[in-house]
Amino acid sequence: MKARRNKKQIPSFRKLIKTSKVKLENKLKNKQFKQQSTLKKYRKEQRKLRQAVKDAVSKKPIPLENPKEKRPGKRIEREEEEEEEALPLDMMDEDDLQLMKDLGQRASFLTRDLSSSEPVHAKKRKHERIIDKYEKIPRTLQTAPEKELIHLLPIKDKSGIIPQTREKPVTDSNKDEEDQEEERELEEEIIEDPIQELTIEEHLIERKKKLQEKKMHIAALASAILSDPENNIKKLKELRSMLMEQDPDVAVTVRKLVIVSLMELFKDITPSYKIRPLTEAEKSTKTRKETQKLREFEEGLVSQYKFYLENLEQMVKDWKQRKLKKSNVVSLKAYKGLAEVAVKSLCELLVALPHFNFHNNIIVLIVPLMNDMSKLISEMCCEAVKKLFKQDKLGQASLGVIKVISGFVKGRNYEVRPEMLKTFLCLRIKEVEVKKDTEDINKPKKFMAFKEKRKSLSRMQRKWKKAEEKLERELREAEASESTEKKLKLHTETLNIVFVTYFRILKKAQRSPLLPAVLEGLAKFAHLINVEFFDDLLVVLHTLIESGDLSYQESLHCVQTAFHILSGQGDVLNIDPMKFYTHLYKTLFKLHAGATNEGVEIVLQCLDVMLTKRRKQVSQQRALAFIKRLCTLALHVLPNSSIGILATTRILMHTFPKTDLLLDSESQGSGVFLPELDEPEYCNAQNTALWELHALRRHYHPIVQRFAAHLIAGAPSEGSGALKPELSRRSATELFEAYSMAEMTFNPPVESSNPKIKGKFLQGDSFLNEDLNQLIKRYSSEVATESPLDFTKYLKTSLH
């Protein structure tokens, strides 16, 4: 068995021939490597042995006075010479070499302190100390500093404790000299070629060049991405890396340009659907090249969009925290400008991409900035949210924003800007889901069953019907329009959150500056409030009015809200709103008559809801009192307010025909008109006349004159006294806005009077008569004589 094994182990000649050339080369290399390694090991051992002998001969204990001082340089050179002169072990005899090895193994002999006079086997005396040993050693004067030593743990021997040290590795002096020479040369070069300090003009020109280069680079990247987004999606990363521009001259400007460029790029190349992450099964399945390419594009787009939003968020945080970064490229003052551009980009993306990924993250960033101390940023964010509300047809994005705003207002304990709640007024909510009608909303269209078709239709008709149904299904899928049911559900949920926010403020923060915005919002959405809340809400509104803490504008909002509630589903309730009529009648004379025109528009809306739409519940006395007070008010306000009030008066005179008795100067019935009384039912308005219309006929505004003349004539719809269609067909609120003087322009514009052109212009004395000119010259040439004034003679004559 052994012979066989040996035969198997030794390869035959044939097998060697068959072995490839590569294997043979590898074997040769391995053999050479082994020889080299054994040689290296041998040399290393010889070096160690030589060093041990040398250390044993030259070893001396080091004094404790200055152990860290460097040894003189001469000793280093001497040691190097000795090392060079030392005989290599390869040239020694075998007997000598064996002797050296034996000596090396007996470490006690070699490492013993030879300078000490004690025998090797002497016992250590207890009273003797280590310091005494050093005292016995003869001291040598050090002409040069010794080498720096590192103290190691001592070794205990029969002779005593032997301190151990090691030299600290010293850098080569030649290298140090070379480095010093290089440094000197560099210094000389720097001295020879000093940096030329640029003037302000040269610096600006240099900055302009740099900026132009950066602009061109940004434009090239952006155009490449726009031309082929799928193939150049990686260039988005390159463009985004420019947000970290480090050149302090152009850093701020370049970063702003990149922010805006990326924002526009994302708006253009983003698809109209939300990109979802791929599942593990989808990743593992094989796909076509086109599909794989699209997936890579979508993945790259989403990741870069995410990083971009994170960069914008970080810019806003840096500005808020006002912390200067280590790079010190952007100053603290520049942080605000960068933050404003970042917020503007976020607002644009909020409005432009409500369907895309990370929209909720943008909402969470924008909503707190709506309450920012900076008015510019706050207005920017509020405007963006308003725009989003106006264009959101389905209501999904609006619901997300409303949820975040409601939570933010509650978290801040209702101490936020009123503008945040005023954004709710832009919500596109006209209908909500009612419980009893949910089953009837948007019933899905049912297609005919085969049996029904067979009974009622012929073969050809069935064929046509089948094609029609197929087409209808395809159209539905193509449109992908959301159902009315889903839309109503979203609107209902949104409005519930809005009302919860409003009711919380009415209950807990009645003196908050948010109250006007709450009352305005309730006035707009009052017709959508659940009937169950009507009684409680009207009680709260009346309490607020009676408290006297509200301004006249806030109280007008209360009145408007109350009547919106009563005009909708509140018709079925048996509530007497007389107190609200009285309050409006009382508040009319408190309206601002200046340029702001505050409250006039609300009053016009209230009058429309309270008198025109509720004509059956309004008495004649109340209508007369309001018409009289409105005409008196028209004398004090600006022209556009006067036009709106007179237009409302015209509508009231048409709605209540018997009010034309105010155009007659003869009094009707008993009593005297009491203009200072705040009760419209008991002020005896039937005993007065609308004399204010005659004063308004001489008003400086031509439209006010026209309306006054029209009302004096009895507000006819035909004939010479009738108004033009452009005035009669417009509502009071539209006329108020149309003739507004907010832009400091007169509407209609004043006609310019062109003076008659004369051929000859007279100048100077030519205007006067010749005789008159002579008389003037004579009197002007005379010297004036001063004479005392005596008024007593005139007084005496008058007495006589």
UniProtKB/TrEMBL annotation:
Domain annotation CCAAT-binding factor: ranges: 555-708
Record protein name field: Nucleolar complex protein 3 homolog
Chain spans, region Disordered: 27-93, 160-187
InterPro entries: ARM-type_fold (IPR016024), CCAAT-binding_factor (IPR005612), Noc3_N (IPR011501), Nucleolar_cplx-assoc_3 (IPR016903)
Biological process, per Gene Ontology: DNA replication initiation; fat cell differentiation
Compositional bias segments (type: Basic and acidic residues): 66-78, 160-174
Residue stretches in coiled coil: 454-488
GO cellular component: mitochondrion; nuclear speck; nucleolus
SUPFAM superfamilies recorded: ARM repeat
Domain (Nucleolar complex-associated protein 3 N-terminal) ranges: 214-308
Keyword terms of this UniProt record: Coiled coil, Nucleus
Molecular function terms from GO: chromatin binding
Bias (Acidic residues) ranges: 79-93, 175-187
Biased composition (Basic residues): 40-51
Pfam families: CBF, NOC3p
Compartment(s): Nucleus, Nucleolus
Family label: Belongs to the CBF/MAK21 family.
